[in-house]
Write a structure and sequence with these properties.
- By secondary structure, the protein is of the alpha/beta class.
- The protein is built from 36 helices and 31 strands.
- The strands form six sheets. It has an eight-stranded mixed β-sheet.
- Strand 21 and strand 22 (507-510) form a beta hairpin.
- Helix 4 packs across helix 5 (131-148), helix 23 runs parallel beside helix 27 and helix 27 crosses helix 28.
- The longest helix is centred in the last third of the chain and has 25 residues, at 604-628.
- The chain starts with 10 loop residues before the first strand and ends in a 7-residue tail after the last helix.
- Belongs to the PEP-utilizing enzyme family.
- Residues 424-506 form the PEP-utilising enzyme mobile domain.
- The active site is at residues 457, 856.
C-alpha cells in the first residue's frame, strides 16, 4: 500500500530512537540510538526512516518534507560538532550508511567521508596535521561515491590503485605517501568524468543528497534482492539511511578499526573474538583486503581502549542478552562505537549460546527456543570429514563457518553458478569476496579465501547462509586471472580440480575427503551421549534444547515411513507414531508381477486369486510395521497412485512387442500388458484413476488391504502387542466416496474380529488433498474419524501446478521475479493452500469435535510450515525420519512463541 506522508516524521536523531524501532529506523539506526541511550561513545548523527525509503521507491522522489527535516538535523549536528559539513578550514565529514530491519551484510550501499572536496581536503589535512590521511580519505570518497552513487565500474578504481602501488614498488595501500595519493585522486576524478560525463561533485550537500538516494536505490539492487530471496526477507520493508559524523581509524598507528564479537560466532565459546586493523577505515576490515590482527593483540597496542571495549562488550551482551557483533573505531586513542547488532552465528554456536545464556540467568528456556531454529539443527545433522581418512593437506586458514564441503575449484561467481546449474558441486575460491560474489556463494558448497578473517564479508555472509567457509588462508596463493591456486611446496590447483574444505578446523585438502555421520545424528540414533569434548558439548546443548522443545510443544510429531526399518529409525529420532505409510511401496519389486496379474484379470476369479496372493504379503508387512511402532499410532494409506505406475513403461513395452512381432515370436503376456497399458493410459494421471477411485472401480482392492491391516493387528494383539493402526482413504472429494469405502471396510473388520475373536479399534479417516474436500470438510467429517492434510497434492490442485514439471520449467523465473518468496512445495502457501487447511480444520471439527487432524505432506518437516500448523490447531505433523528432530524443535518453538493458539485443542 502507498505510504502516506501526512504528518509523518521522516528523520530521527540518534538520541530519539531505541532498539525496539527497527521497523522504522532499521537495525543499524535503532541500535545506534540504543547505544546512545546507554551512554556509550557513539558519534552524533541521525537516521532517515524506512518510511521515507518506501515513499521514494514508490514514487521515485523523496517525501516532500524530508529535505527540510534533513537540513534541520544537519544544522543541529553542525552546531553540536562546532563545524559545518565540508567547510574549507575544518570540515565536518559524515558517512551515509544503509540499515534495514534485518542485517544484510554488504548487500546495500555505504559512502564514507561525505563533505570532502578539492577545497576542504587541505583543511582536513591542516586540522589533522596529516596530509597523507586527508588525501587517503579523499581518494576513498571518490572511489566509493563513484562506484555506489555514480555507477562507475569499481574495477577501474582498483586497477588505478594497483598500478599506483606497482609504480611505487609497494604492496599495500598504507605504503603510498601523500604525493602518491594526491596523484591518485586526480586519476580517480578523471575516471569519474570519463565514465559519467560529469565532474565529481564538489558541493558537500549535493554529495550527501545523492548518497542518500543511492542507498535508497540499493534496496532494489540485484545483490540485495538475491540476498533477500535467499534469507526470506520481505521485499517491501525498505532501508533506513544513517547519517553519522565521521571518526577516523586511518590517522596513524594510534588509530584503527575493528569488529568484535562478545562470543565466538563460529563455536559459541566465550572469550575475546574479533579482528583489528591499525591505520585503517572500516571497509578495510570487512573487505578482507588486508589481513587483520586478532582482537586480543589490541591490548598490547592500546590497553586503555582495549579495556574500555571489553567493558562495553559486556554491557551490550548483558543488555541485549545475546551474542553481539560490534564495529568500532579508535581515533588517536579515543574509542568510538559505530554499530552493534545481534550477531550472526553458526548452527553449533547458536545451540551452545542459547544454553549458556540460560545457565547465566539472562534468558529463560522459552526464549532459548527462539534463539535456535530447525534449519540450524538440520545443518548440524550434515556429515563431517572422517578424521581417520588419508588426506593431503594444502594449507590452513581461519575456521569461519563450519561444515565439510567438497567440490571442484572455481575462481569466479559466474563459473560457480554455471557449473552448479550443470549439477557440479563447486568450491568458490577468491582472494576475498565482495557483495558481487553473492550468487556464486549461494551456488557453491563452500567458500575459501586467502585473505580476511572471521569478520570479513565471506565469513559473515557464509555464516548467515549456513555455508562452509575458510578465510584468511594466507599460505595459499590465489590467482583468479590464471584460474589457479598454489599451495606451499608448489602444488597447483587448477580450476576443476577437486578440493575439500573443513570450516570447523580451517583445513584445506586436495581431492575428496570421505565424510562420516554428524555427532548430532549419532546422538539421535542413540549411539552418542554427552561428555566432555567439544562434539559432546554440542550434543549436550542439542539435547537440552530438544528436551525444552519436547516439554513445550503441543503438536505431536510422526513419521512418513513404509517399512519396519524406517519406522525403527523414526522412533529413535523421536517419532510419536507413523502419520503416513504408503502402501504402494509394498507393491513394487518382486511383487510387481502379482500387481500385473491383478490388472490383467479378466474374471472375478482371476482378480480374487491375484488379490489373495497379495494379501499375506501385505499382512506380513503390516505385522513388522506394527511391531516396530508398538504402542504408537500407524496411519496406513490405502493404494493411491494410478495403476499404470505398476506396469512397464509404455514406450519400452511397445518397442519390445514390435521387435517380437517382427521376429514372429510375440509373447502373449506382453501383448496383454501392452493392451492394459494403453487402456490405463491417461493424459493427466494425477487427476485420473487413482486413490479412492481405484478402490471403487477395482472390486476387492481396498477390501484386501483393509483385511491385511486388520489381520496384522489381530495377530499382534494375540502376541500381547499393542497395535494402533488407522486406515486412511486417499483423494476423497465427496463424502459419498468415503461412505461407500467405509461400509466395505467395516464389514471386513467385523469379519476379521469374528474370525480371530479379537476386538479391533481401527479408526477410518481420509486425506484432505483436493480443494473440494477442504470446502466440504463438514460433510466429510461425518464419515471420517480423522483428517490428514496431504499438502503436496493440495498445493498442486490449488495452484494448478504439476510438481514434477513446474519446478524445472518456470519456478526459477518465478523466484527471481519475486512472485514466490519460496516454492509453495517447500513452505506452505498460507494465503491459498493454508486458508483451505484452516477452513477445513474448523469445519471438520464443527461436525466432529473430537476429529483428529494431522498433515503428512512434505510441509510437515518444514520449519515455517510447522508454525502454521500449530497456529491452525492441528494435532500432529508427519515427515520423513531425518526431519523429525527439526519438526520437534520447531513445534516447541511455535508453542513457546505463540502459546496455545485460539483454535488449538
Amino acid at each position: 500500500m502507498p505510504v502516506s506522508e501526512d504528518r509523518q516524521k521522516f528523520v530521527y536523531d540518534f538520541t530519539e530512537g531505541n532498539k525496539d524501532l527497527k521497523d522504522l529506523l532499521g537495525g543499524k539506526g535503532a541500535n545506534l540510538a540504543e547505544m546512545t541511550n546507554l551512554g556509550l561513545p557513539v558519534p552524533p548523527g541521525f537516521t532517515i526512516t524506512t518510511e521515507a525509503c518506501k515513499v521514494y521507491l514508490e514514487g521515485g522522489t523523496e517525501p516532500s518534507s524530508m529535505r527540510d527535516e534533513v537540513t534541520a538535523h544537519l544544522e543541529a549536528l553542525e552546531r553540536h560538532m562546532g563545524k559545518k559539513l565540508g567547510q574549507a578550514d575544518d570540515p565536518l565529514l559524515v558517512s551515509v550508511r544503509s540499515g534495514a530491519k534485518f542485517s544484510m551484510p554488504g548487500m546495500m550501499d555505504t559512502v564514507l567521508n561525505i563533505g570532502l572536496s578539492d577545497e576542504s581536503v587541505t583543511g582536513l589535512a591542516a586540522q589533522a596535521g596529516d596530509e597523507r590521511f586527508a588525501w587517503d580519505s579523499y581518494r576513498r570518497l571518490i572511489q566509493m561515491f563513484g562506484r555506489t552513487v555514480l555507477g562507475v565500474d569499481g574495477d577501474l578504481f582498483e586497477e588505478a590503485l594497483e598500478e599506483a602501488k606497482r609504480a611505487k614498488g609497494v604492496t599495500t595501500d598504507v605504503d603510498l605517501d601523500a604525493g602518491d595519493l594526491k596523484h591518485l585522486v586526480e586519476e580517480f576524478k578523471a575516471i569519474v568524468s570519463k565514465e559519467t560525463g560529469r565532474d565529481f561533485p564538489q558541493a558537500p550537500r549535493e554529495q550527501m543528497d545523492l548518497a542518500i538516494r543511492a542507498v535508497f536505490d540499493s534496496w532494489n539492487g540485484d545483490r540485495a534482492k538475491l540476498y533477500r530471496r535467499q534469507e526470506r526477507i520481505p521485499g517491501d520493508l525498505g532501508t533506513a539511511v544513517n547519517i553519522c559524523s565521521m571518526v577516523f581509524g586511518n590517522l596513524g598507528p594510534d588509530s584503527g578499526t575493528g569488529v568484535a564479537f562478545t562470543r565466538d560466532p563460529a563455536s559459541g565459546h566465550q572469550g575475546v573474538y574479533g579482528d583489528y586493523l591499525q591505520n585503517a577505515q572500516g571497509e578495510d576490515v570487512v573487505a578482507g583486503i588486508r589481513n587483520t590482527m586478532q582482537l586480543a593483540e589490541l591490548e598490547q597496542l592500546d590497553k586503555a581502549s582495549y579495556d574500555q571495549l571489553m567493558q562495553i562488550m559486556e554491557t551490550l551482551e548483558t543488555h541485549y542478552k545475546d551474542l553481539c557483533d560490534i564495529e568500532f573505531t579508535i581515533e588517536r586513542g579515543k574509542l568510538w562505537m559505530l554499530q552493534t547488532r545481534v550477531g550472526k552465528r553458526t548452527a553449533g554456536a547458536a545451540f551452545r549460546i542459547a544454553t549458556q545464556l540460560v545457565d547465566q540467568g539472562l534468558i529463560d528456556e522459552a526464549e532459548a527456543l527462539q534463539r535456535v531454529t530447525g534449519a540450524q539443527l538440520a545443518q548440524l545433522m550434515f556429515p563431517r570429514f572422517d578424521e581417520k581418512a588419508q588426506t593431503e593437506l594444502l594449507g590452513r586458514g581461519i575456521a569461519a563457518s563450519p561444515g565439510a564441503a567438497v567440490g571442484k575449484a572455481v575462481f569466479d561467481s559466474y563459473t560457480a553458478v554455471k557449473w552448479s546449474r550443470s549439477g557440479e558441486k563447486v568450491i568458490l575460491i577468491r582472494r576475498e569476496t565482495n557483495p558481487d560474489d553473492l550468487d556464486g556463494m549461494i551456488a557453491s558448497e563452500g567458500i575459501l579465501t586467502s585473505r580476511g578473517g572471521k569478520t570479513s564479508h565471506a565469513a559473515v555472509v557464509a555464516r548467515g547462509m549456513g555455508k562452509t567457509c575458510v578465510c584468511g588462508a594466507e599460505e595459499l596463493e590465489v590467482d583468479t586471472k590464471q584460474r589457479r591456486m598454489t599451495a606451499p611446496g608448489g602444488v597447483v590447483i587448477q580450476e576443476g580440480d577437486v578440493v575439500s574444505i573443513d570450516g570447523s578446523t580451517g583445513k584445506v585438502y586436495l581431492g575428496e575427503v570421505p565424510v562420516v555421520p554428524s555427532p548430532v545424528v549419532e546422538y539421535f540414533e542413540g549411539r552418542m551421549h554427552a561428555g566432555a569434548d567439544d562434539a559432546d558439548e554440542l550434543v549436550q546443548a542439542v539435547h537440552r534444547m530438544m528436551a525444552y522443545a519436547d516439554r513445550t510443544r503441543r503438536l505431536r510429531v510422526r513419521a512418513n515411513a513404509d517399512n519396519a526399518e524406517d519406522a525403527a529409525r523414526a522412533r529413535r529420532f523421536g517419532a510419536q507414531g507413523i502419520g503416513l505409510c504408503r502402501t504402494e511401496h509394498m507393491f513394487l519389486g518382486e511383487r510387481r508381477e502379482m500387481v500385473e496379474r491383478l490388472i490383467l484379470a479378466d474374471t472375478d476369479a482371476e482378480r480374487e486369486e491375484a488379490l489373495g496372493a497379495l494379501l499375506p504379503l501385505q499382512k506380513a508387512d503390516f505385522v513388522e510395521l506394527f511391531e516396530a511402532m508398538d504402542g504408537l499410532p500407524v496411519t496406513v494409506r490405502l493404494l493411491d497412485p494410478p495403476l499404470h505406475e505398476f506396469l512397464p513403461d509404455i514406450t519400452e513395452l511397445s518397442v519390445r512387442v514390435a521387435l517380437a512381432e517382427a521376429r514372429e515370436d510375440a509373447n502373449e503376456n506382453d501383448l496383454r500388458l501392452l493392451q492394459a497399458v494403453h487402456k490405463l493410459h491417461e493424459q493427466n494421471p494425477m487427476l485420473g484413476l487413482r486413490g479412492v477411485r481405484l478402490g471403487l472401480v477395482i472390486p476387492g482392492l481396498f477390501a484386501m488391504q483393509v483385511r491385511a491391516i486388520a489381520e496384522a493387528a489381530a495377530e499382534r494383539i494375540g502376541r500381547q502387542g499393542d497395535p494402533r493402526a488407522e486406515i486412511m482413504i486417499p483423494l476423497v472429494g465427496t463424502v459419498q466416496e468415503l461412505e461407500i469405502v467405509r461400509e466395505e471396510a467395516e464389514r471386513v473388520i467385523a469379519d476379521v474380529e469374528a474370525a480371530s475373536g479379537t476386538d479391533l479399534t481401527l479408526p477410518l479417516g481420509t486425506m484432505i488433498e483436493l480443494p473440494r474436500a477442504a470446502l466440504t470438510a463438514d460433510q466429510i467429517a461425518e464419515a471420517a474419524e480423522f483428517f490428514s492434510f496431504g499438502t503436496n497434492d493440495l498445493t498442486q490442485t490449488v495452484w494448478g501446478f504439476s510438481r514434477d514439471d513446474v519446478e524445472a520449467s518456470f519456478f526459477t523465473a518465478y523466484l527471481e521475479k519475486g512472485i514466490f518468496g519460496v516454492s509453495p512445495f517447500e513452505t506452505i502457501d498460507r494465503d491459498g493452500v493454508g486458508s483451505l487447511v484452516r477452513a477445513a480444520a474448523k469445519a471438520g471439527r464443527a461436525t466432529r469435535p473430537d476429529l483428529k487432524l494431522g498433515v503428512c505432506g512434505e510441509h510437515g518437516g518444514d520449519p515455517e510450515s510447522v508454525h502454521f500448523f500449530h497456529e491452525v490447531g492441528l494435532d500432529y505433523v508427519s515427515c520423513s525420519p531425518f526431519r523429525i528432530p527439526v519438526a520437534r524443535l520447531e513445534a516447541g518453538r511455535a508453542a513457546a512463541l505463540n502459546g496455545s493458539s485460539s483454535d488449538s485443542r
